[in-house]
UniProtKB/TrEMBL annotation:
Residues 34-98 form the SH3b domain. This is N-acetylmuramoyl-L-alanine amidase. InterPro entries: MurNAc-LAA_cat (IPR002508), N-acetylmuramoyl_amidase_3 (IPR050695), SH3-like_bac-type (IPR003646). It comes from the Bacteria. The keyword Membrane applies.
């Protein structure tokens, strides 16, 4: 009997091998099919990229609540299938979470990240005489805002406190790791031609977490700063795009426009910005 079985196996080795390969493939496919995981995107305008890093090209955007299928995980990123046949990569930490961030009810309960733009070998925009560097004035402004907030009992962290270079990703990472109640980045605009631009602008990226914050702060800038207020706009800037906390970026006037810079360079202007930010945050936290 056993001899007959061995003979049968020997004579049918190829067919048996094919059957085994088919069974293994079937089991593997079935496991993959039933173990496929779906997740929901947690924020609006989450960029879908060609690979698992910010350096890869952006293919599109997904909004909060969008359900996607997870195909692979790598370094915190997930490869997804969405809209039936489209494939791409998104940050895994921006899925399956409800980003309800307004924990603080007032400034004394809040954790705020202040981000003076540029620094170190990154000078930012240059003034009319090429000597006035954006990085100098973003830090001066942030320092005055920091003092004003701390006087209200706020816990404040700075992405840089001196003239050093800090990468864009590290700035957003600090905000995310501290679970900040708000992130505010300070910058100054520059036009292609000297004296051809004017005014301050407030930018947000994630509508569901940051638009109300941007509106609250901008409404105060409009009343306290003697510049043309250019309003609230969507801005695709990395420090607010990759921020899972309420985040905004202020372009506080044109550094290469004489009239704007005559204000930017003064302590009075910085105190006005500090007052606007403090009042704007107070209003933001006090609303449901």
């Amino acid at each position: 009997m056993y001899t007959n079985i061995r003979t049968s196996i020997k004579n049918n080795r190829l067919q048996i091998l094919i059957i085994l390969i088919f069974l293994i493939a079937t089991i593997t496919f079935t496991h993959a099919l039933f173990s496929t995981k779906t997740v929901r995107v947690g924020l609006d305008n989450v960029a879908v990229r060609q690979g698992p890093a910010l350096s890869y090209a952006k293919m599109g955007n997904l909004n909060a609540g969008k359900r996607v299928t997870v195909l692979k995980k790598e370094d915190g990123w997930i490869r997804i299938r969405y809209n039936d046949q489209e494939l791409g990569w998104i940050p895994g930490w921006l899925t399956n979470r409800k980003f309800g961030f307004k924990k603080a009810k007032n400034l004394s309960e809040a954790t705020i990240i202040l981000d003076p733009g540029h620094g170190g070998n990154d000078s930012g925009a240059l003034g009319i005489n090429q000597k006035n560097e954006e990085k100098t004035y973003t830090l001066k402004t942030a320092n005055v805002v920091k003092e004003a907030l701390e006087n209200q009992g706020t816990r404040v962290f700075m992405t840089r406190s001196n003239d050093t270079y800090v990468g864009l990703a590290a700035r957003a990472t600090l905000s995310n790791s501290k679970k900040a109640d708000a992130f505010i980045s300070f910058h100054y605009d520059s036009a292609a031609q000297n004296n051809s631009g004017s005014g301050d602008t407030t930018y947000y990226y994630h509508k569901n977490t940051s638009l109300k914050l941007a509106e609250a702060v901008n409404s105060q800038l409009k009343t306290k700063i003697n510049l043309t207020n250019r309003g609230v706009e969507f801005g695709d800037f990395e420090v607010i795009r990759d921020n899972t906390q309420p985040a905004l970026l202020i372009e506080g006037g044109y550094i290469n426009t004489k009239a704007d810079f005559n204000q930017i360079k003064t302590q009075t202007y910085r105190k006005q910005v500090a007052s606007a930010v403090t009042n704007g945050l107070t209003n933001f936290f006090s609303k449901d």
